[in-house]
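Lab notes, practical 5.
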Amino acid sequence: MSLQPRGLINRSTFCYINSILQALLACSPLCQLLKGLNYTSNGIITSTPCIEIMCEFFSQFKEFSGSPETRLSKKNKNKRRNFDAYCGDSLEVSSFYKILNGSRSDTFLIEGQQEDAEEFLGLLLNGLNYEMKSMMNMFEREDEETNKQTPIENIFGGKLLSNIHKKGEESTSNTQPFFTLQLDIERATTIFEALKHLTDVKKIEGFISSKSKQNIEAWQQILIEQLPVVLVLHLKYFQFDWNGDCSKITKKVSYPMNLQIDPKILSEGTNRSSGKEKYKLFAIVYHEGEEVSDGHYLTDAFHDGYNTWLRFDDEKVKAVPEHSVLKPQGHRVPYLLFYRRI
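Output from the prediction step:
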């Protein structure tokens, strides 16, 4: 599915919303899901505001038809990397802020305040997932709650396996679902290193045995139990000190266009020979600026219709070459990487 690009108006420091929505517009499985729902509220407040607002938003984007060449600006047809994209009128997305306002007591409360793009993505996906699960449960018998995955879980849902190894006792394990995979980058210069560090064995300080109630030596290792269709990597460029103050890590971390997950970081229960560990990059949400509070978010997304990368900076839309996508300049860093399974 290929949609006509449209810029998004930044009326009140909504770049954290705009950047996420542009990345999701490039996510074909989600586009097909929301287009297929054809869900409308007719202005009535219901129990599924996230589903309705997303369906209404996606319905404002027309599908492209024809070949990529027919969509290029005539004056720039021969300049493949610098053509003018035919875009529809820019949209305003303040309605998204309204459904998020008050979703948490400590954020999204002050309009015009810069917020975290990854947190907005998490609230949006969790909201969609919760509403879909509630609707699925409505169609189950009262004494038989469904354990089926929602469409959102089918697209973005992954699982981590946490193994706790305890000296002199049996190991324990539990699984943890995720929509975005959190990666520490302090000791990493590449995505591959960050993924490896995620699964490093770490000693647990002050571990209390549930049996002896005494301190014992224990170690934790996290492995990937289930890989999602769309893998979203969150590079944790923001770090907090002991006082709760947040600062930005300014180092560069490289990332590939084609990503193959190392089988060594997958759990034994994962089918390592299924070919499901190969991914291709389709969108990047960047954070630009030296500071956390006054930075700016923008998105590069691969557009299937144009067969090239487009840069979405609020209302501005332009084509960019692949090398600028993989090597951001200045204080621009890759904050969220969106990969789709090949």
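Observations recorded by the TA: Helices lie at 15-25, 28-37, 49-58, 94-100, 117-138, 151-156, 191-198, 322-326. The radius of gyration is 22 Å.
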